[in-house]
Amino acid sequence: MIRMTFISLMGSALIAGLAGCETQSGDVSRAVEFEPNYQGVDTRLLDGDLVNFHVSMTGARDRDDVHNYAECAAAQYTLIRGYGFARHVRTTTEIDGGVWRGDAVYTISPALPRGAKTIDAEVIVANCEENRIPTV
Question: In Å, what is the CA distance from 85 to each residue of 108, 110, 121, 128?
Answer without folding.
Answer: 6, 6, 5, 15
